[in-house]
Structure formats: structure tokens, C-alpha cells
Design goal:
The structure is a homopentamer. Chain A has about 100 residues and is mostly beta strands. Chain A has one helix at about 60-65; strands at about 1-10, 25-30, 40-45, 55-60, 75-80, 85. The first copy, chain A, has a 5-stranded mixed β-barrel. The first copy, chain A, is elongated and about 50 Å long. Chain A starts with a strand and ends in an 8-residue tail after the last strand. Chains A, B, C, D, E: It is found in: Carboxysome. Chains A, B, C, D, E: This is Ethanolamine utilization protein EutN.
Chain lengths: ~100, ~100, ~100, ~100, ~100
């Protein structure tokens, strides 16, 4: 899983019918300092994530398990809201 | 899922027979500013996407679900047409 | 799926027995201008691709479907010969 | 699989219920010199890994096998504690 | 699949029990000139690969098929020893 921030939503009227009712959240991957890493992806929300929240997302078949839609075209899903990151900073650059 | 733009089509007469009838769309990944990111991929259209349209695509097993061809060699599919991206720009670089 | 060019073959006498009879093609990913992108991979040919041909390849479980060897260690396969790429160049850098 | 170092934990009260009881370890990928490579991911611990330990992690469906939670949204898991890396340094840059 | 060189082994006493008996080979991805590309991964040997040998490895579910351990946490496996790479060099930079 990876950490990201919800930075928006994507509206698509014409879409796979198995996505109807799914909230498509624009999710920006971030690092442990909550800084932007790479480009945003579109993840289905499964935990009631709000705009601006720090979240955990999963990819691939795991995302369909998260959404409980195994036969769907979903390949990314938000599965948790981050309360806190306990980071041992002296380890992050340890040789 | 990711956001892309349909920039062309790929014609292949000699191909896996399970691809017959599939439209192979050249799909350019784009960022939230609709700028080019990385190299185009070939995705099967499942929603009637047109050249130039901004779309959502999915990858892996999810793409075979999208195409409803589970036993096929498809690993990327277009699953929605983007109407709008609601982006909270002040969040995109938030520390 | 992605576009590549067949640039060689790989010979391996000692290998997983489920690869016996599979042609292992050295496949160079290319962009829409047919320029080299990243490093070559080894893909199983399923369509009679020849050296130098522009092809479509697939990855992951999709490759085992292509080869019709679901229980094999194959994770990449050539699934089509590209006849033509219809590219709308004015879209490739569109904002 | 890849080698990483456990550099922290992630606390998430609101999450997929199938993650309850799973320890979410912030895992920094490292190279053979134990130097940082890329950004940390969130992996479920399945072997009792401690903060600062060098570990082996796996991704995708393999991670759900590791956690013995096949129907869960897990896509990364720690599956071993590294005792030693036997590296033949003269091979690392061999042409 | 990709080409790599076995550059060492990883010793892990505390590990997922389904890895017991598996040889964990430190595998350096290489290009067609046998030069280092990116960082090493940990792959399970299934063909009796030796230190220093040029090999073919596979990833994901394909690796569990290779190891014939479908329910295991394996996500990378060595599946062949490269005897020869027949490379058509004039094609590698062809436009």
C-alpha cells in the first residue's frame, strides 16, 4: 500500500456501469514528509475519505477486494485514513 | 486508474483472435493539468471513446473485467470519459 | 498493452519445462515515433513475429492467456503485429 | 521480492475492516549497500519485524498469501528478516 | 520476463514458512549489453542457477507458477539460464 492525499474528484458520466456509485478520488502519492511524489491516480473511495485527507491506497486485485467488486474494472482504492505516521527519522538514511 | 487522452489508434491485422472486434486506442497518460506524462500505451476501448477525449483507463486483470473478456490477453482498457476534474490546487503541493 | 520492436532472441537450454517450444523474443519498447524507450524485455511470441517487426505486447496474467499456458511462468507475450499507427500528432502535446 | 528497512508504523483508525489486527509497517526500499532507494511503502508485517530491521517484502497477490488474507485489500507484506546478504561485489558491475 | 545476473544470496532464518527450502537469489537486472539496470531484486531459484550466471526471471503470479507454490508469498523467480542472446544491433536504435 502507499500513502497519498485526496486532492480532488473525477466526474465521468459515461463509464463502465460497475463504477456507478463509486466515488472516484484524485489521489496524489506523497512521501513520509507528505510531499508530492509522482503523478496523481484515480482511486475508488471505500472508507469515506474527504478532500485533503491523508490516506492509504492499494492497487491491483487488492483494490477490487477493497471495493468488494471482484468483477469490476477497479485497479486502485482508498482503504484507510492516516491518523499518524510514526517515523524513526534516524533510520531513513541509515547505511 | 489513471487519466489519459486518446491520441490515435493502432491497426494490427495479425493478432490474437480474442482481440478481434476490440478497438485498440493509443492512449497518452496525462497529469491533472492534462499535460503529457510518460509514453502512450495501447488500451482497449469499452465506452466508445473518441480521438482527443480525456478518459480513465485501468490496467491488469481489471482491464479484462472491463472488456468482459477474462480469458483474453488484454492488460489495459478505457473505462470512462472524463467530464470534469475537480481539483483542489492548494492541496497539490501541500506539505 | 505496449508497442515494441523485436530486436533478437534469447536462447536458454536449461529452463522451466513449460517454456519448451516457446520462442523467447527480445523486445524493445518503443514510443509512437518508434524510438527506443527503456530496456528490452523477454516476451513469448504467440503470433509469428519476425525480427525487426513492430509488435504489440502484453504483460502479467494477460501474457499467460495469450500463450494459452495459464499454469506457466510466462509474464510477457507478443500478441499482435502492428500494421499502422494512426497518430493525431496535434494531440500529443495538447494541454 | 525486494529488500527494505522498517522505518516506522502507520496508524489508521478508520480503515478496511480486514486490516484490523494487521501491523502497517512503513518500509523503505534499500539497495544491497542498505542505501535508500525510492520512496517508502506500507507493508503488513507477517514475521514479527521490528523497527530498524532489514527485511524482505513482497507485493501484489503474493502479499495476500503472506498474510493469509486472500480476500483482503493488502498488496504488500513483510515476509522475512534478513540475517545476511552474501554479495559477490565483483559481479555487480560486470559487463 | 527480464534478463538478470545472479550476484549473491540472501539469508533469512525468520521467514514465511512457505519459503523454507527456497534459494533466495540476489538478482541484478541487466540490459542486452549485460550492464547493470536499476536495483537488484530477490528471486527464488527454480532452475539451479549459480552465482554469476546470466538468467531469465519472471515476476508476479508467474513466479508462483515457476516455483509450483501457488499459495506462497513468492513474487519473483529465476526460470532459465541464458546460453546466448542473439541481438540484431542495427535494430536497437532504429527509428
Amino acid at each position: 500500500m502507499n500513502i497519498g492525499r485526496v486532492i480532488g474528484t473525477v466526474v465521468a458520466t459515461r463509464k463502465d456501469e460497475r463504477l456507478i456509485g463509486c466515488k472516484l478520488m484524485l489521489t496524489q502519492p506523497v512521501n513520509v514528509n507528505e510531499e508530492t511524489v509522482g503523478e496523481p491516480l484515480v482511486a475508488v473511495d471505500t472508507v469515506g475519505a474527504g478532500i485533503g485527507e491523508l490516506i492509504i491506497y492499494t492497487k491491483g486485485t487488492a483494490a477490487r477486494h477493497a471495493a468488494e467488486k471482484l468483477q469490476s474494472p477497479i485497479d486502485a482504492a482508498i482503504i484507510g485514513i492516516v491518523d499518524n505516521i510514526d517515523l524513526y527519522r534516524d533510520l531513513t538514511n541509515k547505511k
